[in-house]
Amino acid sequence: MTTTEQARPSRLKAITAETKQLSFWAENAAPIGLVVLVIVFSILSPTFLTLGNIKAMLVAAAILVILAIGQAFVITTGGIDLSISATMTFGAIGFGLAFSNGAGFWLSALIAIVAAMLIGLINGLLIAKGKVTDFIATLGTLSVATGLALIVSNGKPISVNSPELLTLTSGSLGIFGYPIILAAIIAVGAWFFMFRTRFGLHVQAVGGNEESAVANGISATKIRMAVYLISAALAGVAALLLVARVGAAEPAINTQYLLNSIAAVVLGGVSLTGGKAKIVGPVIGALLLTALTNGLTLLGVSQFYQPLAVGLVVVLAALLTRFQKK
């Protein structure tokens, strides 16, 4: 028996032993869960794996994917952004007002992102400069952004009829609609910045041990401000997809996006205590949550039970994070 042949059984034993450990399931909760859901729903519903439904799921997942990526940057530093959904709503209203007052699509899109980033700037200043805890600061800006959106829109949806938004909604390359392609481009860029740049290393360092990071010359203040700006900017991009999907800028906040953006990050294996970064994991987590909701809808499960199912999945994932490798 050759050395290569002898090595194969030992590698197989090592893989088998690893799968028996809870850390393996904790590290791979999102992809394993997604595969299980696809198998179960494809058996229970013949329409689940049709091209039309797959395309619809990917388009529906795009907003959550983008929000989850922004949330991942914040959570990697040990923080949390409770205002992300309200920031998206505020950006959507900014787009609607600008477009309805004669601004073109691109200028309106820029205004939407800038408006969202103003909320991110406030978050960053409160947390990094004012030393307000992230939970309180972002909970406050959640209310501020929600109130502003309602005030400037008079509490009424702003209809938007834009050819560019129509193209964004209906355009596709095969089964991949433009929204999920945009989300994929953002995911690739986020992965590059997180794992291939000094900035990304600094984000992880601040989340892992802020005192040590500062001692090594890293400005924790600048990093914290930056991640909240990134989260807000991505919320502004997500606002464009939201307006495109609904056909109007809605002033009412959708808290489901807030909860699911955090849930996707948890499912993706990012530690809530900070220091452990992942981008692919939260993306898969967002796809998992979308597939779960879609599958339950196809099976005719009442919408009252769907948040319960999502909550149970997230709680299980949160429990598994205790067994992640450090």
Automatic annotation (TrEMBL):
The Gene Ontology CC terms held by the record are:
plasma membrane
The listed locations are: Cell membrane
Record's bilayer topology term: Multi-pass membrane protein
For this UniProt entry, which segments traverse the membrane? 21-44, 56-75, 105-128, 135-155, 175-195, 226-248, 254-272, 279-298, 304-323
An example of a Pfam family matching this protein is: BPD_transp_2
One GO MF term on file is: transmembrane transporter activity
- Keyword Transmembrane in the entry? The reply is yes
The lineage's top-level taxon is: Bacteria
Q: Does the keyword Lyase apply?
A: no
Alphabetically list the UniProt keywords. Cell membrane, Membrane, Transmembrane, Transmembrane helix
Q: Mainly localized where?
A: membrane
The name of this protein is ABC transporter permease
Q: Which organism is it from?
A: Herbiconiux oxytropis
